[in-house]
Amino acid sequence: CNLQPKDAAKMPESAWKLLFYTVSWSYGIYLLFFTDYPFFYDPPSVFYDWKKGMDVPTDIAIAYLLQCSFYGHSIYATAYMDTWRKDSVVMLLHHVVTLTLIAFSYAFRAGQGAALGGAALGLTPSPGSLLNPPSSCFPGRFWFRLYWFPLKVLYATCYSSLQLVPNIPFYFFFNALLLILTLMNIYWFLYIVLFVAKVLMGQMQEVNDVREYDVEDSKK
Description:
Elements: H1 5-33, H2 58-80, H3 88-108, H4 114-121, H5 138-164, H6 171-200, H7 215-218
Helix pairs in contact: 1-2, 1-4, 2-3, 3-6, 4-5, 5-6
């Protein structure tokens, strides 16, 4: 295929992320809909019978390991390997927050499926990283990250957790991280809205990622 040099340079990055999100999304769907876990239809269930030091089922531990490994690598990759974009600093912060959330959730057993639920509901393409332009995942990003994520995950962690475990540890710490991720989801969604607006107003003659710097800017 006849790829432009800048697109060819991004091909390994996009291919790797496509592979990872296909595998992790499929595994998340399996856990949510093809096992006995009621997390999707009953999000507060992640806090049922919660206790310190509780065992984490092997299949959920695999989800933790998969996500932690990826986001640990992504911190390095975003800083030193991937194409630098206007949102790269926010992307780095996203990876750090996500890794911290998942790792501490596992360490403190903050709801046996808390990290799983957040990951599985967010396993549509991660912040503009799979395909360009960002509008390629417009419906999925809105539905998963701006509707289901607050409706399922934030409701369970912010409200239900206190009802079921009044003295649950690190309540504000975990919910602060989840709210930061929500703000980032809104930030990236605005990029998609900007792209769609430019297309509808005829300001974009070819498909470009609005997060990327102009050629002139990159030379400065």
